[in-house]
Every structure is written in C-alpha cells, then in structure tokens.
Amino acid sequence: MKKAGLFSSFCAAILLAALLAGCGYHLSGMSGKMPGEITALSIPVFSNATGKPDIEAALTAAFTTEFAATVQVSENADAVLQGVIKSYDLQSVSYSKDDVNQEYRLTLIMSLKMTKKDGTVLWDDDKVTDYWDFAVNSSDITATKEAESEAFKKIAKDTARLVKERMMEKF
Q1: Which pLDDT score is estimated for 33?
Q2: Cβ proximity of 50 and 88 under 8 Å
Q3: Cα(48)–Cα(69) distance, rounded to whole angstroms?
C-alpha cells in the first residue's frame, strides 16, 4: 500500500514537470537575456526634469540594485542605461463625505534608453509610467509625507523590476 502511494506521487510529479515544461511556463524576467547579450551595464544617475528635488538618486539606486542581480553594473560596461524622470505627479483620488482628501495617487513618468558603446539603441521607452495610491493622514502632515516617500520607494523598486523584465522578454 505504501509503495503504491509513493509510485502515484512520483508519477504525478513527473506529469506535472512535463506539463510545466511543455507549456512554456517560466518565471517572469528569468528566461531571457539582456538586449544585445550584454553582460555589463552602466547606470549613471538619472536626470530629474521635475520640480521634485532629490528623487533621482533614489530612483537610480533602485534600478542599480535590480539590474545588479542580472548583469554586472559598472562604469566600464558594454552598454549604458540612461533615464530622465519626466513627471512626478501627486493627485487626490478619494475624499470623505466632508470633501476632505483621504487618498493621493503618486504617478511617476520616465524616459529610459539602453544603448551600446557605439550608440546602437538596444531598448528604449519614453513613457515608462507607474503609480501608487496612499492614505492621507489629515491630522498629521509628517505621516502623509512619510507615506508619500514610501509610495515613491515602492514605485522605484517595482518599476525597475518591470523594466528589467520587459527588456529580458524583449517587450
């Protein structure tokens, strides 16, 4: 009885493995290679074309951290990823019955371009957009500013991951 259960489990595992392999299943961002087969990437500090000061270093750091898991990030590299932060927009998205703001939406728009040393464009998108909603604490401005900062960090990390996945999937 015990051998039959073990054999059934083994067969089920083999069948599952065959199905997953046959359907093309893979983890997003893990199947492809970087455009142009690059192995090293330089990521200079992104330009900030917004009125929001001091956001370029944190955004560049998020991209550097994300890409370092896939390629060597260094100044002397096969290619360069350049970025321009085009928009940092904070909009009210929900109100209380007394018309008091309860939630903001932070939207970030960037232009990104990856080029080889010879100038060949490997990947570019001039409208990379992401957003995150966060709660407003109408009685504590500091808490609202901290929530905005956390929303920005989340957008930076998520956008870096999504951009890398798009590059690796050639999308």
Answers
A1: 80
A2: yes
A3: 25
| Both structure tokens of 148 | 């905005």
pLDDT in tens, 27-79: 444 446 888 889 999 999 999 999 999 999 999 999 999 999 999 999 989 89
Task: Enter the tokens of residue 130.
Answer: 């992401």
Alpha-carbon distances, residue 12 vs 2, 19, 21, 26, 83 (angstroms): 15, 10, 14, 20, 48
3-state SS string for the chain: CHHHHHHHHHHHHHHHHHHHHHCCCCCCCCCCCCHHHCCEEECCCCEECCCCCCCHHHHHHHHHHHHHCCCEECCCCCEEEEEEEEEEEEEEEEECCCCCEEEEEEEEEEEEEEEECCCCEEEEEEEEEEEEEEECCCCCHHHHHHHHHHHHHHHHHHHHHHHHHHHHCCC
| 107 Ramachandran zone, left/alpha/beta (phi>0; psi -120 to 50) | beta
- Residue 130 forms beta bridges with which residues? 108
Over residues 154-171, the pLDDT tens digits come to 999 999 999 999 999 876
Beta-strand relationship, 40-42 and 79-95: parallel
Residue found under tokens 């060597």: 72
